[in-house]
Amino acid sequence: MKAHVWVMPKRTVLDPQGQTIQHALASLGYAAVSDVRQGKFFVLNLDGWSRDEAQAQVEKISKEVLTNLVIEEFRFEIVD
Amino acid sequence: MKAHVWVMPKRTVLDPQGQTIQHALASLGYAAVSDVRQGKFFVLNLDGWSRDEAQAQVEKISKEVLTNLVIEEFRFEIVD
Lengths: 80, 80
Hints:
The structure is a homodimer of 80-residue chains. With 80 residues, chain A is α+β, with helices and mostly antiparallel strands. Helices cover 35% and strands 38% of the residues of chain A. The first copy, chain A, has one domain: Mth169, Chain: A. A three-stranded antiparallel beta sheet of chain A has the order 2-1-3. Chain A binds chain B through residues 6, 8, 18, 21, 24-25, 28, 30, 32-49, 57, 61, 64-66, and chain B through 6, 8, 18, 21, 24-25, 28, 30, 32-49, 57, 61, 64-66.
């Protein structure tokens, strides 16, 4: 079983990396790209957990380890 | 319209960030997490492109700007 976890800067938080990329794209002629947000994506390999355990444990892992809840938010999905 | 772009280290490339997280999780008692891969996730806001244009332009952007094709691979989807 695997988990996919997305960690993104909160909407209210500045995203300097995303802004830098948006500016770079504008200067390359991609004016249609009006905003860029950059986040992190994790693929976790899970051994020996049931789907329910995986759901609960990956939520804990996302909160405690992968996300800085002051400035970031997360979502995840469990996939087979 | 938006684009979602995932950029991951190639399977053949070491992922030191992912390994560090996997070790941290093991030391916290999450032994069931046998592997972690860390990548980047981008959300692009697109104005004024048709779906076909978006498909072509985002592929170019992913290749030329977002991904280091020597060590990374990407996939993307266009969403409304």
